[in-house]
Design the sequence.
C-alpha cells in the first residue's frame, strides 16, 4: 500500500474539445465520451489522466530516468531504467511490477460551458459538484467549502459575472437572483468570468444533452466523395470545460533518496502550462491549460 505523503490538485481548462472515449456504441452517438456510472456526468478516468501525464513527462522532461519511478514500471520506458532497489533479490522480485510514486484520481467535472443570451456562453456548476469538490479539498488537506446553498427548480445564483434575471441556457430558462454570493471555488482554479450555480437537475440535463457532437466521414481518394459506411458521430466535452484531479505523492514501497516534496516539485515543474489529454491528438483535441493547487501533507 502506498503511503500518501503529499497532495496536490491539478485543474484542467479545456482549450480545445476533449474526447476521452468509452469505446464504440450502438446508440445514436457512435463514439461517446466517458461518463460516471451513477451520475452520468462526463469525466476522464484516472488511467487516462495518468497516461496523459506520463506521455507529457516522456516528451518534455530533460532527464527521463525517473519516469518509471514516478509513474510505475512500463516496458515502453525500460531504456530509462534506474536502480532504486536495495539488493539484487529485491530488484528481481519487483522489477516488472512496482508502483509509481505519483497517483491520480479521475478528472471530475467542475464547470460546464453552455451557450446563453447574456454572453457567447456562461459556465454552470451545481451544489452536488461543489459538495464533491469540498470533500476532495478536505481529502487533499485543504480548506473545505462551507455553506453550499441549495438550489431547486429553475432558479440560479450568480457566483461571478454580475448576471441576474431570466437567462437562457441552451433551450432552458433559469431565473438568476439579483444578489451575488461569494464564489466558493478556491484560488488557483481557473478564473471564470460568468459562473452560475444552478440546480442539480439543470446541471444534469446540460451535461447529458449539451455536449458537442461532431460528424466524421472518410473521403474516397479516387472519387473525392464520402466513402460508403464511413459516417460516424463522435461526442466531445466542449472547449472551456473545467475539470480537476486529485494527485497524491508518495515515497512508494521501496527505499530511495527522493522525498515526497521533491517528487511533487519535480513533477509540477515538468508538467506545466499546457498538455494534451484524451484521443484524437492529431485533430487538436484535448489541449488543456493546467493549474496546480498545492495541498497539504499527511
Sequence:
Amino acid at each position: 500500500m502506498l503511503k500518501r505523503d503529499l497532495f496536490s490538485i491539478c485543474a484542467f481548462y479545456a482549450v480545445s474539445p476533449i474526447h476521452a472515449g468509452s469505446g464504440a456504441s450502438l446508440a445514436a452517438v457512435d463514439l461517446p465520451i466517458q461518463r460516471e456510472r451513477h451520475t452520468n456526468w462526463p469525466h476522464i478516468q484516472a488511467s487516462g489522466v495518468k497516461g496523459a501525464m506520463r506521455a507529457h513527462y516522456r516528451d518534455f522532461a530533460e532527464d527521463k530516468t525517473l519516469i518509471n519511478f514516478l509513474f510505475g514500471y512500463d516496458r515502453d520506458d525500460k531504456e530509462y531504467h534506474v536502480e532504486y532497489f536495495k539488493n539484487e533479490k529485491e530488484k528481481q522480485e519487483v522489477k516488472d511490477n512496482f508502483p509509481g510514486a505519483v497517483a491520480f484520481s479521475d478528472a471530475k467535472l467542475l464547470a460546464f460551458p453552455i451557450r446563453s443570451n447574456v454572453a457567447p456562453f456562461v459556465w454552470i456548476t451545481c451544489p452536488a459538484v461543489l459538495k464533491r469538490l469540498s470533500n476532495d479539498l478536505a481529502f487533499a488537506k485543504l480548506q473545505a467549502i462551507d455553506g453550499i446553498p441549495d438550489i431547486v427548480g429553475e432558479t440560479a445564483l450568480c457566483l461571478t459575472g454580475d448576471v441576474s434575471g431570466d437567462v437562457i441556457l441552451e433551450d432552458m430558462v433559469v431565473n438568476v437572483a439579483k444578489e451575488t454570493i461569494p464564489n466558493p471555488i478556491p484560488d488557483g482554479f481557473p478564473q471564470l468570468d460568468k459562473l452560475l450555480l444552478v440546480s442539480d437537475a439543470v446541471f444534469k440535463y446540460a451535461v447529458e444533452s449539451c455536449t458537442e457532437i461532431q460528424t466524421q466521414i472518410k473521403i474516397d481518394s479516387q472519387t473525392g466523395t464520402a466513402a460508403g459506411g464511413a459516417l460516424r458521430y463522435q461526442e466531445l466535452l466542449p472547449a472551456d470545460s473545467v475539470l480537476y484531479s486529485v494527485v497524491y505523492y508518495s515515497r512508494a514501497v521501496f527505499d530511495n533518496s527522493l522525498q515526497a516534496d521533491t517528487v511533487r516539485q519535480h513533477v509540477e515543474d515538468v508538467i506545466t502550462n499546457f498538455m494534451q489529454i484524451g484521443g484524437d491528438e492529431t485533430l487538436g483535441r484535448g489541449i488543456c491549460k493546467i493549474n496546480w493547487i498545492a495541498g497539504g501533507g499527511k
Summary: Residues 46-60 form the longest helix (15 residues). The two ends are 15 Å apart (CA to CA).
